[in-house]
Write a structure and sequence with these properties.
The protein is of the alpha/beta class. The protein is built from 14 helices and 24 strands. It has a 4-stranded mixed beta sheet with strand order 22-23-1-24. A 4-stranded mixed beta sheet has the order 2-15-17-16. α6 links the parallel β10 (about 155-160) and β11. α6 runs parallel beside α7. The N and C termini lie close together (about 5 Å). The structure holds uridine-diphosphate-N-acetylglucosamine and phosphoenolpyruvate. Phosphoenolpyruvate binds near residues 23, 93, 307 and 373. It is an enzyme of class 2 (transferase). InterPro entries: Enolpyruvate_Tfrase_dom, Enolpyruvate_Tfrase_sf, MurA_subfamily, RNA3'P_cycl/enolpyr_Trfase_a/b, UDP_GlcNAc_COvinyl_MurA.
Length: about 425
C-alpha cells in the first residue's frame, strides 16, 4: 500500500491550477447513458473515482477513450443493465446509473451501496422518487431491482431532504420519462446546475436552473443528442488548496476556479482574518497577522460544504482561540478527529459538534491513517504545519478525488513524497 511522507513547515508560495470537479464529472458520465451519440468531455479529472465510473460504463457494454484530460464516451452499445457489488462497493456514486439505465431500458439492477466511513447514506429518497415515476422497486440479494415496463412517467417529486445524488438521478430519469417532472426541494449545487445545462444543450427543456424547483420535460424514451462540453472546476479541491495557504499562512494564487462557487469558503476564510482577492477565474489568499477562530455549520449549497469541514478543522488548530464545527449532513464525518489528536491537536467532540482549541497547540509529525477522502486531505493540511515528518497511510482514499496532489503541493514548495510500504 502507498503512503505519503510530508515534512512540515516548508514555505509554500506561487500558483496552483485546479482540476475538473469529480462530483460534477460522475453524474455527467452517468448522463451519457441517455445519449445516442459519442460525447467528448474536457477537463476530466484524472482521479480514481472517474476511472472506476468509466470502468462501470465499459462493464455495461459502453466504451471510452481517455487522453490528456479528454474522455470520449460512447454508450449507444450498452447491452447490460447491472451495476455489480464489486464496483458499487468501491464507489457510492455508482448509484447514479440507476435513473438513466431505468429510463432508457425499463429495467436495471444496481447493488445497494451500503454505508461508508462518513455515515449510513441511505438511497431511500432516490427509490421513493423513482416509484412515484412509475417504477417498481424490489430489494433482493443486496440489489435494487427496478423495473418500469411501461416507461417512467413525469411526476411531482417532493424530496423530504435535500439530496444531491437523488436530484441528479431524478433529473436524468425525468429527461427520458413521458411527460413533465417537477422536483421540489431540489439540491442547488453547481454540479446540479452543470448537469441541467448539459441536458438542456441536449434538447431537454428544464426550468428553474439554480433553484430548488426544477421542471423537466421528458423525451418519452427518445435518446438525446449531446453536445461536447468541459467539466466545471472542482470547488472542493480549490477550497483545500486555499486551506493549504491559510494553514501555512502564506500567499497562494489558485487558478482555473469559479470564485462564485467558493463564496461560503471564502467567507469563512475572511472571518478567520485572511484577505482573499477574487478575479474572473482565480482566487489569491494572503497571509494574516493573526488567524482568528471560526464557527462553522455545514449545510447544502450555497451554505458551507460538508466536503470542506475536515480541512477547516485542520486549519482551526492554528487559530488564535476556540472554533466550533457543527456537522449537519453526515452523522459520522469526524473520523479525522482522532488522527488530528495524534498530531497533537486539541479537539473535543460532543455529538455532531467539534470544538477545536487552537493557539498554543503546535502539531508534531507522526504516523496517521486516512479514513475517507476529505479526512485524508485534512491530515495532509495538518502535516504541512506539523513539526518534522508525518506519514499518511491508506492514501487510496485521497486518490479517489485529488488529481496529482503531491505534484501540485511540491510545485508550490511543500515537501511531499509518495512511497510504497
Ligand atoms: C459524488 C458526490 O457528488 N458526492 C457528494 C454528494 O453525496 P450524496 O449525493 O451521496 O449526498 P446527498 O446530498 O444525497 O446526502 C445528503 C444527506 O441526505 C441523506 N440522504 C440522501 C439520499 C437518500 O436517499 N436518503 C438520505 O437520507 C444522506 O444520508 C445525507 O445525510 O453530496 C454530499 C453532500 O453535499 C457530498 O458530501 C458528497 O461529496
Ligand atoms: C464524500 C465524497 O464523495 P462520495 O459522495 O463519492 O463518497 C466527497 O467527494 O467528499
Amino acid at each position: 500500500m502507498e503512503y505519503l511522507k510530508i515534512i512540515g513547515n516548508k514555505e509554500i508560495s506561487g500558483e496552483v491550477e485546479i482540476s475538473g470537479a469529480k462530483n460534477a464529472a460522475l453524474p455527467l458520465i452517468a448522463a451519457t447513458i441517455l445519449a445516442k451519440n459519442e460525447i467528448k468531455i474536457g477537463n476530466m479529472p484524472n482521479v480514481v473515482d472517474i476511472n472506476t465510473f468509466l470502468k462501470l460504463i465499459d462493464m455495461l457494454g459502453g466504451s471510452f477513450e481517455k487522453q490528456d484530460g479528454i474522455v470520449k464516451i460512447n454508450t449507444y452499445e450498452i447491452d447490460k443493465t447491472t451495476a455489480t457489488y464489486d464496483i458499487v462497493k468501491t464507489m457510492r456514486a455508482s448509484i447514479l446509473v440507476l435513473g438513466p439505465l431505468l429510463a432508457r431500458f425499463g429495467h436495471c439492477e444496481v447493488s445497494l451501496p451500503g454505508g461508508c466511513a462518513i455515515g449510513q447514506r441511505p438511497v431511500d429518497l432516490h427509490l421513493k422518487a423513482l416509484e412515484q415515476m412509475g417504477a417498481k422497486i424490489d430489494i433482493k440479494h443486496g440489489y435494487i431491482q427496478a423495473t418500469a415496463p411501461e416507461g417512467l412517467k413525469g411526476s411531482k417529486i417532493v424530496f423530504d431532504k435535500v439530496t444531491v445524488g437523488g436530484t441528479e438521478n431524478i433529473l436524468m430519469a425525468a429527461a427520458l420519462a413521458q411527460g413533465t417532472t417537477t422536483i421540489i426541494n431540489a439540491a442547488k449545487e453547481p454540479e446540479i446546475e452543470q448537469l441541467c445545462e448539459v441536458l438542456m444543450n441536449a434538447g431537454v427543456k428544464i426550468e428553474g436552473l439554480g433553484t430548488s424547483k426544477l421542471t423537466v420535460e421528458g423525451s418519452n424514451k427518445e435518446l438525446l443528442e449531446f453536445k461536447d462540453f468541459d467539466i466545471i472546476p472542482d470547488r472542493i479541491e480549490a477550497g483545500t488548496y486555499m486551506c493549504a495557504a491559510a494553514i501555512t499562512n502564506r500567499k497562494l494564487k489558485i487558478k482555473k476556479v469559479i470564485p462564485l462557487h467558493l463564496e461560503a469558503v471564502i467567507s469563512k476564510l475572511e472571518e478567520m482574518n485572511f484577505e482573499v482577492i477574487s478575479d474572473e477565474n482565480s482566487v489569491t489568499i494572503l497571509p494574516t497577522d493573526e488567524i482568528k477562530p471560526v464557527n462553522i455549520i455545514t449545510s447544502e449549497y450555497p451554505g458551507f460544504p460538508t466536503d470542506m469541514q475536515a480541512q477547516f478543522m485542520a486549519l482551526a488548530t492554528q487559530a488564535n482561540g476556540t472554533s466550533t464545527i457543527d456537522e449537519r449532513l453526515f452523522e459520522n464525518r469526524f473520523m479525522h478527529v482522532s488522527e488530528l489528536l495524534r498530531l497533537g491537536a486539541d479537539i473535543h467532540l460532543n455529538g455532531n459538534i467539534a470544538t477545536i482549541n487552537g493557539q498554543s497547540h503546535t502539531l508534531n509529525g507522526t504516523d496517521v491513517m486516512a479514513t475517507d477522502l476529505r479526512a485524508s486531505s485534512a491530515l495532509v493540511l495538518a502535516a504541512l504545519v506539523a513539526k518534522g515528518e508525518t506519514n499518511i497511510h491508506r492514501i487510496y482514499h485521497l486518490d479517489r478525488g485529488y488529481e496529482n496532489l503531491e505534484g501540485k503541493l511540491t510545485s508550490i514548495g511543500s515537501d511531499v513524497k509518495r512511497f510504497t510500504e
